[in-house]
Amino acid sequence: MTGPFEDVVRVHGGTVLRVCRAVLAGHDAQDAWSETFLAALRAWPGLPADVNVEAWLVTVARRKAIDELRRRTRHAVPVEEPGALDGVPLLGGVAGPGERDLDLWQAVRALPDKQRRVVVLHHLGGLPYAEVARLVGGTDAAARRAGADGVAALRRTYGAQEEER
Fold it and tell me: Are 120 and 55 spatial neighbours (Cβ–Cβ below 8 Å)?
């Protein structure tokens, strides 16, 4: 690829961070963001000129975030009080104010794998469904259906949480 790498970070940094935050929280998401751009910088000179940079970065970000989740499961997680986990992973500081954001990120993480991946790639990553279908596997229509089902599930889950308040 040609052109300054700083332009890539400036243009796509927000999208990459949203993808990382959909999988991780707080500092872990920021770490995955940094790891994504470190890996991208190393690969940058060898990328073909016709590559969809945004789709490529979203894929790298998702993999870096998953790597971080795997790394975390292999290490003890300190908690302030016993039982703080209660079967739910610690979320740390999620971007945006209020507990409502924490509920949304939990709801996104609770989606079935394909629905979560489509919602993250399309709605947070901004990729078109054709590109999402290529990344996730399947057809454009299947990606649209998984995305619609994921959003519907989020509305049901999120709406039920709002009624409890």
Answer: no
Position 73: which residue type?
A: T
**Is 34 within 8 Å of 89 (Cβ atoms)?**
no
- 116-148 residue pLDDT tens: 989 988 888 888 898 889 888 899 999 999 999
pLDDT in tens, 6-22: 899 999 999 999 999 88
Has residue 37 got a pLDDT over 90?
Answer: yes
3-class secondary structure per residue, the chain? CCCCHHHHHHHHHHHHHHHHHHHCCHHHHHHHHHHHHHHHHHHHHHCCCCCCHHHHHHHHHHHHHHHHHHHHHCCCCCCCCCCCCCCCCCCCCCCCCCHHHHHHHHHHHHCCHHHHHHHHHHHHCCCCHHHHHHHHCCCHHHHHHHHHHHHHHHHHHHHHHHHHC
